[in-house]
Amino acid sequence: MTAVEERPGTRPRPDVEPGQLFVGGRWRETAGRFDTADPATGKTLTSLARASAADVDAAVAAARQAFDGWAATPGRERARVLHRVADLVRERADEIAALESADVGKPISLCRAVDVETVAEQYEYYSALAQGVDGATRQIPIPSHAYTRREPLGVVAAITPFNFPLILSTSKIAPALAAGNTVVHKPAEDTSLSALLMAELLAEAGVPGGVLNVVTGFGSEIGETLLSHPGIDKIAFTGSTAVGRHAASVAGQHLKPVTLELGGNAAHLVFEDADVERAVGAAIKAFVFNTGQFCMGGPRLLVADALYDTVLGALAEAVPQVPVGDPFDPATVVGPMAGERHRAKVEQYVEQARADGGRIVAGGGRPSFEGDLAAGFFVQPTVIADLPADLRVIQEEVFGPVLTVQRFATEDEAVALANGTPYGLAAGLQTTDLARAHRVAARLEAGIVWVNDWAMLDPAIPFGGVKDSGFGREYGPESLGSYTRTKSVVISLA
Ligand code: NAD
Q1: 3-class SS at 248?
Q2: At what angle do helices 411-418 and 434-443 cross, to 10 degrees?
Q3: How many domains is the chain built from?
Q4: Average pLDDT of 463-468?
Q5: How many CB atoms lie within 10 A of CB 11?
Q6: Residue 46 counted as domain residue
Q7: Rounded to 5 degrees, what are φ and ψ at 28?
Q8: Does 485 lie in the same domain as 367?
Q9: 172 in catalytic set
Q10: What's the maximum distance between 2 C-alpha atoms anywhere in the chain?
Q11: I want to staple 185 with a disulfide (CB 3.0 to 4.6 A). Which of 41, 157, 158, 274 is the partner?
């Protein structure tokens, strides 16, 4: 598969025809097809294979067949292979970034600096950890030799969302493979292209056939098949809270371990002692990053009374300056939404907030473009102030470049507002008071808290949710641990 054909003067066009699945180390034909759109132009980008239940059976069987060999491969050898993946990702970085940008509408600069680089870093990180998947000896007061083994789980179903296709598939595949599991990956239907390219790249790096399989298609079809498939030993799901809840119930019926990385609606607290310029910069980054399609974005800004007007004034001036446009322009910071349905959802929330008396401080509509981009799925970065906390736009996950701004009088009120939604994925605060930073970080209901910046992420730092944002952690040794189980062996010495 050649991922992208560069033609000077035109937008790169992914060349992934015909749509195929990757099963058992080979491309596999299937009868069904579905189209995927270029979010920047609204035009059809390419067509993908629409996998059936029989294709899922074949992928699970291939993964099952490959499992014994991969699990028995020494960790050091698995590490070498995973490290080669990182090297190949770096060698083909421009091609991978261009494909992701065309498919998701992400700004090319972001794809290159964040998405592709993070994938390489994750493979390097889990390559290192693959060499240390081992147990421990335990001293017990009977004459015995007692030790634990950490064993892989088997075949993992990795189900991933549309917004960070490369990063969030790697955050499952890299630790799962490092621990000796095999994987069937189902990417989101809107943004599946990089999963196919990565399958090809992992094979080139030496990942044996069947260790990673990719099936493209719909959640309601093959996603469901995977959840209840008897050949699946673990479900690693990232997506919306509604689908995650369903995945958990199916996993419960089949008693399969499951990790759920679900929706978020983070609060970002600006205390009266904050560095205002820094706080405003972080607030903008937190809500426009990835066009607001960021589970750990900061769509709720809570500002101390003393700074409320100053911060709103700074946002009103700075937000309209954020470059919105063609994802292939290196200067673009905000591209289109990844799909038409995502834009429609965001616009509905903005209209409702307006009707509920919200003050639009910036944006509130669509940017206007001529030519190809005129039919793209763009929205303006939007700031809305003066809304009560119980409104849907504040309580629910909007998942677009929309920031609501509320005010608070005391630290207790700030924490109560921050914790006052069903979600608990990320949170952040701006303060120059060190004691306050630690005190408030401890009180915020979230899996990760950032102080004086936003989105500081690294494969070594675990993230994940509390409350309706799910459970389980990705990144760090915690993630590797979630792809192993402990067996105890006790040998009598009597
Ligand atoms: P989604 O829940 O609609 O889909 C996620 C995946 O689940 C897709 O691959 C989809 O095809 C599949 N799916 C849908 N229905 C299914 C079913 N019945 N059975 C099995 N699989 C099914 O989510 P989305 O719109 O793609 O992604 C956006 C959501 O993901 C947001 O809520 C966002 O916050 C969340 N998210 C969370 C994290 C995190 O780390 N916590 C990261 C990124 C995105």
Answers
A1: helix
A2: 40
A3: 2
A4: 98
A5: 18
A6: yes
A7: -125, 130
A8: no
A9: yes
A10: 84
A11: 158
**Index of the ligand 1 atom closest to the CA of residue 190:** 26
Q: Are residues 91 and 135 in the same domain?
A: yes
For residue 295, indicate whether it is catalytic: yes
How does DSSP assign 417-454, residue by residue?
HHT-SS--SEEEEE-S-HHHHHHHHHHS-SSEEEESSS
Question: Three-state SS for 227?
Answer: helix
**In the 8-state DSSP scheme, what is residue 440?**
H
Mean pLDDT, the chain, integer? 95
Give the Å distance between the CA of 263 and the centre of ligand 1. 8
Within 275-425, residue ranges assigned H as helices are: 276-288, 308-318, 340-355, 392-395, 411-418
In 120-232, at which residue ranges do the beta strands (DSSP E only) sit?
137-138, 144-152, 155-159, 182-186, 212-214
* Residue given tokens 């994938």 in the structure block: 119
Per-residue pLDDT of 16-35, as tens digits, reads: 555 899 999 999 999 999 99
User: How many other CB atoms are found less than 10 A from the CB of residue 57?
Assistant: 13
What is the spatial distance between Cα 396 and Cα 263, in angstroms, rounded to a whole number? 9
Residue 159 backbone dihedrals phi, psi, to 5 degrees = -115, 120
Q: Whole-model pTM?
A: 0.96
Domain that holds residue 64: 4-262+469-489
Evaluate whether 271 touches 279 at the Cβ level (below 8 Å). Answer: no
Q: CA 197: distance to chain centroid?
A: 18
Name the active-site residue from 106, 172, 234, 256: 172
* Alpha carbon nearest to ligand 1 atom 35, residue: 239
Domain assignment of residue 463, yes or no: no
